[in-house]
Amino acid sequence: MSCLEPGEVVRFDAGKVLVTEGESPELFYIVMDGELRATRNYGNQTILLGVAKPGTFVGEIALLLDSPSNATVRALKPSRLFRLSKDDFWRMLGSCPSVAQQIFREMATRVRNLEGYSQQREKLASLGTMAAGLAHELNNPATAARRASGNLREVVENIQSFQCELHHLLDPEQWEALIAASDAAPTTLDPVTRSDREEEVASWLEHQDVADGWKLAPAFVNAGIGSTRLQALASKLPGKSLAPAFGWLEATLSLEALLKEIDGSTTRIAELVKAVKSYSHMDKSPMQEVDVHEGIENTLTILGHKLKKVTVTRKFDHAIPRIMAYGGELNQVWTNLIDNAIDAVKGTGKICIATFLDDDQVVVEIADNGSGIPPEVQSHIFEPFYTTKGVGSGTGLGLVISNRIVADRHGGEIEFESEPGDTRFKVRLPINHTHHSPTPSEGTNS
Length: 446
Description:
The chain is an alpha+beta fold. It is 48% helix and 20% strand.
């Protein structure tokens, strides 16, 4: 019996979809006439993987791996194909060794090429995640610093104007009392209390014939200065000096607040830049002593924009030693696992990150209270191109690359256990490991 005897010849018009990305494999095609086009979705992009011409075949990867199709295949031209069902495909492999050898050889080449391309996409995706997080985290302090610096000129001009007006109104002792009042400590109040005190101070200022008292009140309340302290200050100043004196005091307090805001914002920006530099291990050799806690904290900083509504609990054993490792690559592992946990809790749940020592290994455990990994999926999560995310939302290589970084590069392992409400990934890293393995991007396909 011929190897291809059970099959049938089928025809497809241009544009007809033969295989849809993400669907379970059912059929194997050999192109007799025409052309087929294979594409894969990455995010919002559709990427061309290749064109199948007469004498070539498609569909073998999904059938051999028993995994959802990693590409969409459609007819580029009117095409005539030879089609085999899944069962007939497997029977053909068993009865025709030469055909099976050709199919396996071609599959190995395609998987290697697709994995290499997807690894680059995964790296770009990680870079995009970091860039998006950094842009988001930098925006707030940068905006605050820009706003504060914009207000500085007006405040300084007001201070100078009031000083000129008060020059002939206050003697040295009165100036000393006014300056002493500006040395106030900021207070934290709930919105209702703050509003009540601002209204009280504004009312008191109006009774002192100070114009626009409602504009001055917020700065006084923020500095912890209420109507009682203002009354004590007013008793030491000439009546006609109250308006410019309180104007000067408000401007001085505002200046101090603006300077603190700029200092806080620029400090935050510096911390973010430092975190990114440490995250990527710039200016350092690839293998060096690494503090896993520092890498985890830097990763949390980078992913901060995704963690706004997530409760993150840290249970760190700070007694664990630093280890020799490829720091930048480990941070890629933390990014992948934490990002997966964020997806699992849909951005609103709980994530717990713990570190501890176990049998001369540093263990990093990342747990979440999401819906869990279905039992039928668990045996596949470390397989290339297997993803539980929607089509175009994942490369299916995040955990594969993470596992290679941990196992091949560091001699460790990744374990996991999952049930609804409790999924835990444990990364085990030996304290002493100096073996050099190929980088994750070099792969192991040979």
